Amino acid sequence: MKLEKILSRIEILRQQGDIQIEITGINSDSRKIEPGNLFVAVCGTVSDGHDYIEKAIAQGASAIVCQTWPQKTTSEITYIQVKDSASAWGMIASAWFGYPSEQLILTGVTGTNGKTTVATLLYELFGMAGETVGLLSTVCNYIGKEAVAATHTTPDPLELNGLLRRMVDAGCRHAFMEVSSHSVDQKRIAGLRFKGGIFTNLTRDHLDYHKTVGAYLKAKKGFFDMLPSDAFALTNNDDKNGTIMLQNTVATKQSYSLRGMADFKGRILESHFDGTELEINGRQVFVRFVGRFNAYNLLAVYGAACLLGMDAETALVNMSRLIPVSGRFQTLRSPKGFTAIVDYAHTPDAIKNVLTAVHEVLNSKGQVISVVGAGGNRDKGKRPLMAQETVAQSDKVILTSDNPRFENPEEIIADMLQGLDSAQRQKVLVITDRREAIKAAIMLAQPDDVVVVAGKGHEDYQEIQGIKHHFNDKEEIEALFAQMQ
Fold first, then answer.
1. Where do the DSSP E strands lie in 386-446?
2. d(CA 327, CA 459)
3. Partners of 15 in beta bridges
4. Domains (range + CATH), the chain
5. Which end of the chain has the least Cβ crowding within 10 Å, N or C?
6. Taking a C-beta distance cutoff of 8 angstroms, is the pair 148, 140 a contact?
7. Are the C-beta atoms of 100 and 173 separated by less than 8 Å?
8. pLDDT tier at 100 (50, 70, 90 boundaries)?
9. Is the separation of the CB atoms in 120 and 300 below 8 Å?
10. Is 455 helix (H, G, I), strand (E, B) or coil?
11. Of 110, 188, 157, nearest to 165 (Cα)?
């Protein structure tokens, strides 16, 4: 592809060299540059691509896109200066793959909790309606029914646009994707055209990266600010940040709520461990999901489906057939008459949501035993808050290891304990080994009790000192239940 075509939608501040040259490939990683490639120097969070321009040229790059003009240039290379190389990189990747997002009906989902559930259920809902659909999510990416392993919540622009291109080529009409705050802040979604945006909620998370809740909020809002006028912006009216998301968007503003007036109004009629009876816009539907937080997720799914043209009756019928996403409030019934729940909850608010949902159904008929840990090399400030939320709604708590990464798991648990006073600590056991912690919880459980294992959900590994060891909470519980038979 000619360089001029690749740069056709980008404002060029300064140019040196020929833009009619043929480009053989594009990359922002100098290590992957091959002869004839275009190298985009992006100012990253860990390193600055401008430091690798000379290496990219040595690897064979014939053109450089940069934000800061190099001190030294050579006449054999084409140099292009842009205002923001991170945004340019997204637009270049989009151009390279023929602007695939413009050939799809692309809907993005953002928020602290619920992104995976909402995006995945929309993918399944439209699949049930006979559509070929694409999905970009934390758990797995799908091109139609073909699974493609997920590496990030939102991939880098090259991988992202490559996947969207494959969706177009596979005949997908709709695509649903999680939009992380990191991806907005790092401009990974620059150059994409969305038909809709959905906001679930916003609570404390990722402060190791964003530093403040305000910066985190700004990143989420940035997604809605970029939506075009022919898109919809669907927000949770019951979240205090819901209306903030819509302040500057030019998209059509829509809302959903369980508590007040909204375009899509819901009400919980009955709650059970096998599902919930909901009323949505005056129509009743039984769904196989538990908890108020899932009622919000399903309202978002219903609202988005209707805004995307699905018949309301079809949406409700298909919603009744949906099953929970892997690792999201997965319910397992033991031979001894108690229930175990596996959930990905790894923030204070997510843990609160899961335990509140358990109590809504349990109705004081049994005890709640919770197993929880916190991830290493992430926001340390949420650790004591997670412990507080867990202890507040549990009869017994076992603090254990999650993904310690490069931290000492005992030190992570110590950080969690800092949030508890001496009376609260009386409820707590510390068992660092996660397998033993789950086993202890199962052994403590009596008929009618509920064991909640939180933090890892769908993950099938434990990351310790940079090495991923196979570990799956659901598998551990099922193995223990098998021994009870």
1. 396-399, 428-430
2. 8
3. 80
4. 3-96 (3.40.1390.10), 100-319 (3.40.1190.10), 330-484 (3.90.190.20)
5. C
6. yes
7. no
8. very high
9. no
10. coil
11. 157
